[in-house]
Model the fold of this input.
Amino acid sequence: MANTSPAIEDYLKTIHAHTEWQPEPITPSVLATRLAVAPSSVTEMVKKLAAQGLVTHQPYGAIRLTDAGLSRALGVVRRHRLVETWLVSDMGYGWDAVHDEAEVLEHAISDRLLEAIDAHLGRPARDPHGDPIPQADGSIVSVPTVLLSEAPAGHAGTVVRISDRDPQLLRRLAACGIRPGVLVTLSGDTLDGPDGTAVELDADGREAIWLTT
Amino acid sequence: MANTSPAIEDYLKTIHAHTEWQPEPITPSVLATRLAVAPSSVTEMVKKLAAQGLVTHQPYGAIRLTDAGLSRALGVVRRHRLVETWLVSDMGYGWDAVHDEAEVLEHAISDRLLEAIDAHLGRPARDPHGDPIPQADGSIVSVPTVLLSEAPAGHAGTVVRISDRDPQLLRRLAACGIRPGVLVTLSGDTLDGPDGTAVELDADGREAIWLTT
DNA sequence: GCTCGGATTTAGGGATACCGAAATACCCGC
DNA sequence: GCGGGTATTTCGGTATCCCTAAATCCGAGC
Done:
């Protein structure tokens, strides 16, 4: 039953991504939107995942990963984030440009190559966006963070994580020097960086950046 | 018409590999054996390739790449060999262990990443087995060679290329220090390397090694 | 409590790429 | 020149993953 495929991995990864930073389980329609497939495709695939014991799902109910499903999902996330880190460290990719390439490679890399890349990079704990890289045993090194949209006015902290969902936002932030590790201060809708740099962020932007508490 | 898929790429690559070192066009049954698929699958896929103008094929006739098909095949070969070279140079793979990994990655790498790897490696002309790496423009740097089974008794030369088809043979040769670039002498069925090393080769082994003339 | 609209599932198909079995074409040896 | 065996193709089917259109469910608001 070690059945897998790029499609299955993408479903598990997307289900996991939804709960990584908030607790509500994902619904079929959200899953369909994120994967850019029709809702009926989700119904079908979720049925298959449930049959393999990777998710729990009652008709018309929410979708939740089982322990087995979570473990598979973390494996995919690990691949994705190590590939991203490798592309930036070794191949000269900008950290705003690695997502699509990693999306494909995460399904193509053997365990052996994954291990070689991990060793080569010195077993990093975070990828270029600040996302934690699950370790081979499934454990995750975490840091306490606040989402920008939930931070109090005037909050100052180090950028820990920036969601890689919107490449355009990533490029805008990269241009202003806002990246993981940089110290910033929130004033209203504007984020002040070092050397007087500042970016104004809309609601989506404030949902995409996490600072240290 | 930029239709492609891993399956199509594998067919084109395999058709090309058959004619790379000898002129006879490949037959459907040989193609089926090399790809480990049923003959009927080959008929079907070849029909599709012919419809896309990538091969010429009359029913019951031989299969030949068109110019368009050759160009696509060379693209796949380039990917494969650059990936092999990268795995050996950067990731600590043995040159006898890279084939299977490259077989998968060759279908997953974007043009942009391919270019980055090529630049990173210093635009190599040959992969770890001595196979020429087609350049981005499709040109190939070639060296005059003799196949061991066609070399006269006592012939001495530098190992230029070793077929990567049989991993066990590759491991045996690696253990004896026989690899591309090494000076050897053929005596009967035995190949003498430097420092008194020697390997006895069967008919298949003598079909897998090329020396300088 | 009922209804209506959005979310979800069911039903019926399509594309890709594979298979085994059965039919057919080809060619070698006599 | 004719078998007969092998190579090749045809035919009907399978598995995966996707789609659209048509039910059906569910819960929010009246």
